[in-house]
């Protein structure tokens, strides 16, 4: 499904007072219990992982778990419920079902990680190396990272943080962690290192940052990017996707393929989306 359908509706982006993307009562909780569904764990017994929050305040954007983060968690879990659970139907394109069934979490980059919820879920679903990056790394994130590292250590899997702000130009080199991954590999199996999956949750929140994000994505080497997105600024976001579509395939993922595990169905409103992005 084309990304353009997001903007083809007469329905406009949410009003200013409704743009937050997280219920205020949820921001007051010190932590959330995230349910992780994985076929190997048993569908009736999800793994419960506690993810800390810092609450709203000066670091409110980074310190709490937004609806997009929970929606991303549900998307990632849906990809691991069953490789045969998502056949194409009359309402679901074949490549959408394939994108869900073939999600590769071997190497994962979590951009604008906030609390780290997306990378944490990926880690509990088997990711072998994860890099979390944001301009602010909160106390809650640090705790979530250390907890995740304890779970990964037994399998020699690794997760690393990177405090870094997206540059406004390409005059400076990207950090090694972004270019070479956790193991700082120049090549993998004789080929240039590419991230298998990049996770971006609600990174379009600040419209002033969209040009810098576009530039960063152009410079990264990745095979697939999953974007959990809440529409807030119609025209700037339309322009962002239009430019992205000049060098990537941008697909809107069908909501009916995402199992509601952590985000209640009533919170999956008409302005909340998952997009699958692959360089052409």
Features:
280 residues; alpha/beta; two-stranded antiparallel sheet; 10 helices; 30% helix; globular
How would you characterize the overall build of this protein?
With 280 residues, the chain is α/β, with parallel strands linked by helices. The protein has helices at 5-8, 24-27, 60-63, 67-81, 94-101, 117-124, 139-152, 176-180, 210-219, 234-244, and strands spanning 31-36, 47-52, 107-111, 129-134, 158-163, 187-188, 191-192, 197-201, 225-230, 248-252, 272-279. The strands form three sheets. Strands 5-4-3-8-9-11-10 form a seven-stranded mixed beta sheet. The protein has a two-stranded antiparallel sheet with strand order 1-2. The model has no long low-confidence stretch (mean pLDDT 87).
Summary, kept brief:
30% of the residues lie in helices and 20% in strands. The chain contains 10 helices and 11 strands.
Strand fraction equals 15-25%
| Shape, principal axes of CA atoms | globular
What's the gyration radius in Å?
18 Å
Question: Which regions are unreliable across 5 or more consecutive residues at pLDDT < 50?
Answer: none
Strand arrangement, largest sheet?
A: 5-4-3-8-9-11-10
Q: So how many helices?
A: 10
Q: Give a short account of the largest sheet.
A: 7 strands, mixed
Overall pLDDT level? 87
